Amino acid sequence: MNFRNNRPMEEPEINFIPLIDLLLVILIFLMITTTYNKLNGFQVALPEANAPESSVATDDVMIAVKADNWLMNNEEVSAEQLQQRLAEYAKNMNENNWVIIAADGKVDYDKVMNTMEIANAAGINRITLQTQKPQEKQ
Question: Quick check: is 82 in a domain?
C-alpha cells in the first residue's frame, strides 16, 4: 500500500503582503501624528534680572567680555593672560568668591562660552553671569 501521492510537496512560503500593508499603515499614522519643528533659527529671549542689585565683593573677579578683548577687573588682558591670572586666582579662592562674567550685547555667545571654559580649566567652578535690570517702560 502506497499512501503517498506522487505529487510533489509544495514548498511553504511566507506571504509578505499583509506585513507590508501593516507597515504602510503604521508609516502613514506616524507621518500624520508627528510634529516637525524648524530648528534652523529662532529668537531667544535672554533673561533679565528681577532681583535687587547685589554688591560685588572685593575678592570677586569681574571679567568683561568684549568683541575684541577681555577686561579683568578693568584691566585689558589677552586669552593667555586671562588663563594665567585665573589660575593664580583659583589658588587663593575660597568658597565665597565668584568669577562674574559680563558680556557686551554684541559679543558672540561662543566667546562667552570660551571665557567660561577658560575659567573652568583654571580650576574655578563658581562662575556667574551678570545681567542687567529690565528697562522701565514709559
Answer: yes
Look up the domain containing 90 and give its range. 61-129
- Compute how many other C-beta atoms are within 10 angstroms of the C-beta atom of residue 47: 9
Q: Which of 4-13, 71-80, 122-131 bottoms out in mean pLDDT, i.e. has the lowest? A: 4-13
Does 17 reside within a domain?
no
At 72, which CATH number? 3.30.420.270
Q: Is residue 118 part of a domain?
A: yes
Structural domain count of the chain:
1
Asked whether residue 3 is assigned to any structural domain, the reply reads no
d(Cα 92, Cα 122) in Å, to the nearest integer? 12
- C-alpha–C-alpha distance, residues 90 and 88, integer Å: 5
Do residues 60 and 99 lie in contact, with contact meaning Cβ atoms separated by under 8 Å? yes
**What is the rounded distance in angstroms from the CA atom of residue 29 to the CA atom of residue 38?**
21
Beta partners for 63?
A: 72, 101
What letter does residue 86 receive in the DSSP assignment? H
pTM over 0.70: no
Cell of 116: 567660561
Contact residues for 112 (Cβ-Cβ < 8 A; gap 6+): 65, 101, 103, 129
